[in-house]
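Any chance you could type out some protein's one-letter sequence along with its backbone structure tokens so I can compare the two?
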Amino acid sequence: MLTKWGKALDRAHILPEYPRPQFRRSNCEILNGEWDYAITSVSAQTPPERFDGTILVPFSPESELSGVGHRLLPTECLWYRRQIEAPPGYDPNTEDLLLHFGAVDQFAEVRLNGVSLAHHAGGYLPFSVALSETFINGIPNELIVRVRDETDTVCWSRGKQSSSPGGIWYTPQSGIWQTVWLERAPKRRIEVVQIKPLFDQSEVELVVWTNCGDAGSVQLLGRETAFVSGTPLRLPMPGFTPWSPEEPKLYDFSMTFERDHVESYFAMRKCSLEQDEQGTPRLFLNNAPYFHNGVLDQVYWPDGLYTPPSDEAMIYDIELMKQLGFNTLRKHIKIEPLRWYYHCDRLGMLVWQDMVNGGGKYGAAAISLPLVFGNAHPDSDYAYFAREEVRGREAYTRELHETVMLLYNCPCIAMWVPFNEGWGQFDANRVVDFIRALDDTRTIDHASGWHDQKGGDVKSLHVYFKPYRYSRDVLGRAVVLSEFGGYSRSVAEHSYSKKEFGYKRFRSEEALMRAFEKLYQREVIPAKAKGLAAAIYTQLSDVEQETNGFVTYDREVVKMDPSRVRAINAQLSDAPAAAEDAEQTDEEIKA
């Protein structure tokens, strides 16, 4: 099943945009496109003499757009090969050549000219490899990437990938699934910047690290200010415009260190848990109550699986939800390419970021029965949550740290969600402390759905099979409906499968629309008046057998009347003036 963007794919220019919008250098060569591939036994330690054909990077071999159509098994090894040459202007005496991978699922080894340069574990986070010492200037160099993927057979992070997909569990994917690019960078260079808006002080705090210490300069609002590597620098922002979904103001700035120049951006906004004038705990944005009205967003593509077929495809999903009147996306059990977060930043969309789950085989008592009985089990019981393996818990903690640091600068991120429905949950309150030590600027949903350990900033509920009635949290946390709805309508000619999964099924657009209106009018809107702080409807798009999206899996059919959805959402808005005029007509949205 192809999306319109997959049908229009230019194989010579696949996802050509610069991959790191908040850390931009001018020297970049995108390596997406045709690579050689081969599949061998996992025991093979050297690449085969003959490769099987070509694969379209960065699409996983399981995806239609890859051109391969093979599901990598834990007993198999996937090999990539291509030739690379020095980018124009490369000076090996003053510059390093850096090879960047947006994400490779699950274990990757990078070799250049037969030399092993790096190993990386974890399928959802970026990594970089310095090539300079092995790279031979002036001739083609052979790049090899060796990949293994154990999916759900072991304790590593896997998200919603399943070796037995069905219902809420999906087709597993492997290998390179985000952009690969080559970058020239000075040997003495800027490595990292951390950006912290100090909303109440009308300042922004920057910490810039170089790889060699020393000082550089920051250019912001026409002013140039010196920085010292690793030392916080506070810059005044008098009369700043606060960032919000209604007015997503971004401020550009740049950093210069000797011959290195990096461009970035930030926003002035504040996320917090506070009490409103009636003493009710609420989620606040910029020191005012702000109802997070959103949808669950898993971002799977029928043609690319984890990988969007284009930048425009990512933008479509975000803009569609804004046009329907939502202001929040809960990024569910996945980490997106950094350009996705950039589009949320610039378009104005709050994001709740889930961590990717792992662990052993989940038991129904831990992950399913609480939906009916509502029990909460102590998550120090590692066996109950399939978290006995120390190496799995250590890997989760390492990836949690990397995730928070990767997305720390993104203005759109408003909430961290470390655990969902008990999937590999453990020591949630310790995890909250761990996150707060890294980032004290955002709120935390420590256990989304059930298995509440009485921590975090919110009491988080998933309600599907019974009416929701608001009840205040005795611990003084905000109450959020972090999943609900899931109403299904299958559109046969736009469905992935004849099987249909949803929490309540409807056979016509009108029946679905009326049920949606009834759900919000009888349950969500009254609850908000009493104290409900957020509502996250399931979900943005259909995904494989799940047919409970606002839009079909191929993004061709919007299933509900946009004007009626907007009318409902307008009643939940805490914005100073809820937008009533959509950027597009309803007919254009549904087309």
